[in-house]
């Protein structure tokens, strides 16, 4: 960013001083912008302008404070002071918003006297997603403007609202089509002509109070351990109970306290990590291949989800199934998925009809796949079945078509090798339900061409996914690590913990669901098939194994879909009641293995689970399966319910301290030195006094 005058351009248009922010790409409120706003207001006053218009150059109004400045010593002028200065101006100050007015951006708008926006503008106070609360009097001004409950809804969820909703809530005064400069100037001229008064929100009466303690507790509970949404309640309480300036000081104190927390660090790490995953040296200057028509082979839950996602992204889809009946069922599944989008207003009825009738083609013949730019196979997870599909595909796909397998464990090299074009083959590992889950693992085989990888990322972007590059191994990044920490949990069960204690301990840690509730949701038959395959391949004799989960499957209990698994779902999916058949199976297993059960504390459960996760993740990074630690973090955040406010397992590990974790792993290895072998990368980092974040930085150059 340049000087203040460059960051905020000043221009006079008659009686109106126009302040145009120029800090691409998102007009973040860095130091020069803040200084530029102060200087611009002062100049407008000195020059005798009657009104000031503030808007953003490029694609957006201010998208918020400059997150890159967080954690560094704050630089003057501070944002709350800039807001106060704007509001205190004797001139009429108008904001014209387009793009996104977020966080400090909306707080600037709230300190101007009138607000206008284009219909497509979006606004919000998303600070909770960064582990913070609004810190430039947003918690004081917004409730004065729209009332406590509506303001708290916006702050505690961090959701974005559109211009129309903002207008109906009273956040803005007017919505008009046009450029922000045009609509802002016209509005300011009108205000001058009508002698409109200044309208400082801080001078509006304090809002009506609510039951603060009850609301605080409810929001805290909803946050599953995240503290910042609940702290919004305390800051807004200040708006009701304190004079404006003291309310601002109270907000500032809470903001500063949160700035020092691990939660703030974790969430900001997550923010930048999810933007860094697609930035790979091998993709620099590489153009993706064209993408207009795709084909999906297999219309089960996964294939239909992928097809839905592709249709929603504007691609045409050919769905191949084995029989017309199976194809019709696939179409029903896709239509079912799309009707969800229809209900949520993401598409209208005409869109629904177009997607299901024109953009989707059903077929039972491979010959119809010859026009597809990219084909995704989503058939049964069995190597021979997949190879057969790829042989047929190789015979019909057009030259240059990308051939993708949606396998979640199998060797993509082996699949690619049955084709005459292994450079066109890659893995696209979607997560179920594929039209909902944001994660996409893009699996690069030995001979995958860079532009094929780039095409995978381009597809992910179009579908609105967070795509992570992964190398080939059993389970890639996510499922490989999952398999390891799940084993750690299984070992704890053998040694005396119950699945229910483990789920509860990990949910208290912040996971959306504990591992056994997740297993029930995914289907216990999946893990059963993997165990059978691994046993058939030959387990290492030092590996611990257990049979209780197999017995559960043999009894026909596959989890939610059969009504019983670790839990009994007779009273509904949410009412998780332990299945009484489980404990006796576990006890029988312990007895057969001669294990005397011992008690586990919740802390030990979390520590062992996390240590196993971090240790395997370090191996995954050390072997190059994940390029950087941040790729693991994003995978676990988006595919495995890892609590975002902890940043991801390797960010968590950095904050916990790697030496202590390694020491614990060495301690566990004294009981089981096969499972708990420390990852070489973890040992290396500790020996060199480095962190995973250092590796992220080295990779960024
Ligand atoms: N500060 C610094 N950099 C930011 C930024 C911010 N507030 N917002 C976005 N960026 C950067 C991104 O890191 C990215 O950089 P890169 O190109 O080097 O990767 C670039 O701007 C473009 O961002 P996106 O790739 O995310 O672009 P999109 O167009 O997809 O999204 C956006 C734009 C909706 C503005 C999205 O970036 C976003 O949600 N940004 C964060 C907004 C936010 O959280 N604001 C509140 C900040 S906290 C605050 O204001 C505190 C105050 O109350 C005191």
TrEMBL record:
Catalytic activity annotated for this protein?
a (3S)-3-hydroxyacyl-CoA + NAD(+) = a 3-oxoacyl-CoA + NADH + H(+)
List where in the cell it is found.
Peroxisome
* GO BP annotations, alphabetical order: fatty acid beta-oxidation
3-hydroxyacyl-CoA dehydrogenase NAD binding domain sequence ranges? 294-470
Q: Where is the 3-hydroxyacyl-CoA dehydrogenase C-terminal domain?
A: 475-569, 605-690
Coarse class of the primary localization is other
GO MF annotations for this entry? (3S)-3-hydroxyacyl-CoA dehydrogenase (NAD+) activity; enoyl-CoA hydratase activity; isomerase activity; NAD+ binding
> Which superkingdom?
Bacteria
Cross-referenced Gene3D superfamilies, in alphabetical order?
1.10.1040.50, 2-enoyl-CoA Hydratase, Chain A, domain 1, NAD(P)-binding Rossmann-like Domain
Q: Which InterPro entries does the annotation name?
A: 3-OHacyl-CoA_DH_NAD-bd, 3HC_DH_C, 6-PGluconate_DH-like_C_sf, ClpP/crotonase-like_dom_sf, Enoyl-CoA_hyd/isom_CS, Enoyl-CoA_hydra/iso, NAD(P)-bd_dom_sf
Family designation: In the N-terminal section; belongs to the enoyl-CoA hydratase/isomerase family.
What is the protein's name according to its record?
3-hydroxyacyl-CoA dehydrogenase
This chain's source organism reads Marinibacterium profundimaris
């Amino acid at each position: 960013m340049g000087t203040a005058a460059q960051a905020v351009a000043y221009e006079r248009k008659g009686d109106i001083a126009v302040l145009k922010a120029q800090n691409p790409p998102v007009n973040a409120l860095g130091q020069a912008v803040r200084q530029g706003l102060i200087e611009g207001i002062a100049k407008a006053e000195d020059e005798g302008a009657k009104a000031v218009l503030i808007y953003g150059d490029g694609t957006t109004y201010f998208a918020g404070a400059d997150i890159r400045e967080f954690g560094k010593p704050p630089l003057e002028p501070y944002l709350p002071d800039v807001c106060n200065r704007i509001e205190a101006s004797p001139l009429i100050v108008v904001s014209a918003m387009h793009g996104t007015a977020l966080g400090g951006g909306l707080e600037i708008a709230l300190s101007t006297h009138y607000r206008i926006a284009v219909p497509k503008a979006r606004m919000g106070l998303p600070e909770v997603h960064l582990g913070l609360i609004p810190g430039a009097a947003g918690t004081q001004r917004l409730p004065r403007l729209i009332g406590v409950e509506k303001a708290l809804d916006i702050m505690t969820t961090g959701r974005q609202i559109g211009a129309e909703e903002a207008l109906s809530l009273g956040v803005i005064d007017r919505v008009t089509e046009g450029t922000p400069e045009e609509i802002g100037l016209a509005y300011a001229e009108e205000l001058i002509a009508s002698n409109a008064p200044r309208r400082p929100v801080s001078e509006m009466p304090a809002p009506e109070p609510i039951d603060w303690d009850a609301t605080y507790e409810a929001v805290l509970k909803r946050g599953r351990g995240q503290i910042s949404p609940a702290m919004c309640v305390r800051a807004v309480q200040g708006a009701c109970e304190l004079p404006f300036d003291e309310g601002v000081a109270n907000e500032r104190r809470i903001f500063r306290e949160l700035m020092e927390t691990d939660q703030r660090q974790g969430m900001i790490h997550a923010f930048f990590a999810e933007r860094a995953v697609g930035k790979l040296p091998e993709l620099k200057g590489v153009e993706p291949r064209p993408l207009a028509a795709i084909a999906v082979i297999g219309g089960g839950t996964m294939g239909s989800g992928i097809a839905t996602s592709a249709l929603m992204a504007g691609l045409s889809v050919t769905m191949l199934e084995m029989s017309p009946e199976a194809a019709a069922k696939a179409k029903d599944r896709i239509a079912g998925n799309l009707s969800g989008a229809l209900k949520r207003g993401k598409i209208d009825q005409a869109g629904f009809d177009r997607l299901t009738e024109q953009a989707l083609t059903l077929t039972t013949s491979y010959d119809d796949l010859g026009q597809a730019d990219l084909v995704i196979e989503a058939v049964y997870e069995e190597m021979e079945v997949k190879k057969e599909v790829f042989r047929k595909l190789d015979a019909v796909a057009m030259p240059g078509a990308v051939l993708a397998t949606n396998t979640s464990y199998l060797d993509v090299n082996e699949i690619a090798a049955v084709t005459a074009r292994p450079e066109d083959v890659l893995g696209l590992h979607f997560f179920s339900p594929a039209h909902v889950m944001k994660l996409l693992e893009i699996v690069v085989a030995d001979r995958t061409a860079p532009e094929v990888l780039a095409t995978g990322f381009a597809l992910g972007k179009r579908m609105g996914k967070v795509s992570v590059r992964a190398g080939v191994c059993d389970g890639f990044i996510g499922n490989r690590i999952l398999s390891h920490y799940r084993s750690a949990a299984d070992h704890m069960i053998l040694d005396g913990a119950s699945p229910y204690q483990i789920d509860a301990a990990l949910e208290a840690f912040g996971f959306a669901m504990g591992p056994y509730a997740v297993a029930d949701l995914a289907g216990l038959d999946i893990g059963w098939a993997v165990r059978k395959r691994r046993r058939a391949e030959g387990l290492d004799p030092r590996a611990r194994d257990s049979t209780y989960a197999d017995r559960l499957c043999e009894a026909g209990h596959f989890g939610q879909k059969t009504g019983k698994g670790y839990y009994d779902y007779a009273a509904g999916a949410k009412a998780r009641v332990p299945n009484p058949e489980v404990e006796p199976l576990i006890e029988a297993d312990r007895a057969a293995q001669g294990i005397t059960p011992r008690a586990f504390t919740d802390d030990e459960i979390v520590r062992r689970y996390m240590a196993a996760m971090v240790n395997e993740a370090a191996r995954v990074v050390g072997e190059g399966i994940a390029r950087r630690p941040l790729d693991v973090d994003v995978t676990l955040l988006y595919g495995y319910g890892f609590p975002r406010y902890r940043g991801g397992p390797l960010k968590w590990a950095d904050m916990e301290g790697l030496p202590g974790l390694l020491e614990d792993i060495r301690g566990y290895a004294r009981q089981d030195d096969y499972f708990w072998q420390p990852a070489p990368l973890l040992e290396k980092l500790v020996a060199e006094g480095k962190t995973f974040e250092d590796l992220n930085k080295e990779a960024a150059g």
